[in-house]
Backbone:
């Protein structure tokens, strides 16, 4: 259950950026969370509700964009998306160790007033 | 009072676990509680999700999940601005990890981050590995646990300097904790730093500590399918150590299945099959560590 500290980190980033932009309110925080980040979106949402209280982002909407895992297959020279977090190339069935996307945990953007 | 609409509903503060469901229904349906991990549960008429320059002419009403609600936004004109952020949530940890990494390199230290579920044998493995490596490499150990210094006491039996980090309620080590802990070790004469992370196969995967290699342990008692159950952790592994092989028979351990599952979840990882108790596989492991240290020292201009 490290979603609480991940969410606190996200909120800190969001609030800092919001203040820099002169926000009086944050309406929405958009996150990008990778399939291999080890973070459960539902748990983030729950943590957000508690952590945002009393901040500029109180009552803001939390939108989480899921980033699927993508790997590179050197044999087939192609990138492929993995829907099960494993790296077997759908073309040649070789497992690839080269992760191209899926570990993301970032604050993408904000909607502010 | 609700800052969304100024309707002054009291008692909407979250209290306990049920607070995830906001009693006070307003136009912004919070996105928790839905099955899919992303997306906007809001309906038409909601202007979130894109920048817009036009002034709103609130009040408007829209229906979200059947709950109708009237917004009154005259005060601020309703113009939301979009701020592009694109910043990693663990940005601060990542930067501190890089600082650690630079510091470790400058000291010529090879740094290993040991991860596994609780009880897979990290402490015993590290204690025996430190002893076995002693003639070639001098190790220091940082060990993280929620509480107690039991592991530190056991690790000190190896003769290595050990710092215990008690994380309280935190389920993983962070770069900052390691940075502080390392300040308590006399690093003179050391060339290997082993970090025993908190026993947990989920959270520590997200936190770079500044290590050179991630070492994930899987004991034969845990079930061959563990790598399939925790792909993010195994996917991040540079090395997978199968521990407690002396118990294989008693557990009905299926070696081929375990190896296939590890290769599926961690195709790049080097695999070692070991028993800290009987010493099986420890020589191979020690050779590997010594090679890694040599290779890094040779490559790294800052190295010894």
Residues:
């Amino acid at each position: 259950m490290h979603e609480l500290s991940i969410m606190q980190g996200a909120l800190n980033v969001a609030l800092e950026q919001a203040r820099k932009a002169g926000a009086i309110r944050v309406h929405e925080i958009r996150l990008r969370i990778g399939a291999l980040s080890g973070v459960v979106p539902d748990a983030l949402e729950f943590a957000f509700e508690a952590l945002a209280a009393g901040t500029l982002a109180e009552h803001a909407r939390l939108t989480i964009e899921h980033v699927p895992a993508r790997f590179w297959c050197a044999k087939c020279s192609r990138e492929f998306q993995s829907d099960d977090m494993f790296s077997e190339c759908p073309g040649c069935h070789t497992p690839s160790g080269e992760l191209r996307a899926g570990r993301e945990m970032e604050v993408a953007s904000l909607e502010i007033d | 009072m609700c800052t969304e609409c100024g309707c002054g509903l009291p008692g909407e503060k979250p209290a306990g676990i049920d607070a995830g469901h906001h009693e006070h229904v307003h136009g912004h349906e919070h996105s928790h509680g839905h099955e899919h991990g992303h997306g906007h549960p809001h309906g038409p008429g909601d202007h979130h999700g894109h920048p817009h320059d036009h002034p709103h002419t609130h009040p408007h009403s829209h229906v979200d999940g059947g709950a109708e609600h009237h917004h009154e936004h005259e005060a601020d004109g309703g113009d939301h601005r979009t701020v592009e952020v694109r910043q990693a949530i663990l940005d601060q940890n990542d930067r501190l990890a890089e600082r650690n990494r630079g510091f470790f390199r400058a000291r010529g230290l090879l740094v290993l981050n040991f991860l596994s579920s609780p009880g897979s044998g990290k402490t015993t493995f590290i204690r025996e590995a430190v002893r076995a490596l002693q003639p070639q490499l001098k190790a220091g150990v940082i060990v993280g646990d929620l509480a107690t210094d039991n592991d530190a006491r056991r690790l000190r039996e190896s003769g290595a300097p050990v710092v215990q980090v008690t994380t309280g309620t935190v389920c993983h080590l962070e770069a900052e904790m390691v940075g502080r802990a390392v300040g308590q070790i006399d690093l003179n004469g050391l060339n290997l730093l082993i970090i025993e992370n908190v026993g947990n196969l989920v959270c520590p995967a997200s936190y770079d500590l500044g290590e050179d290699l991630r070492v994930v342990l899987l004991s034969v008692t845990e079930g061959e399918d563990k790598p399939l159950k925790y792909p993010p952790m195994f996917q991040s592994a540079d090395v997978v150590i199968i521990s407690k092989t002396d118990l294989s028979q008693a557990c009905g351990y299926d070696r081929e299945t375990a190896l296939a599952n590890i290769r599926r979840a961690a195709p790049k990882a080097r695999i070692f099959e070991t028993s800290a108790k009987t010493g099986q596989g420890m020589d191979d492991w020690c050779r590997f560590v010594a090679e890694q240290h040599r290779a890094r020292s040779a490559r790294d201009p800052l190295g010894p």
Remarks:
- Chain A has a mean pLDDT of 94.
- The first strand of chain A starts at residue 26 and ends at 34.
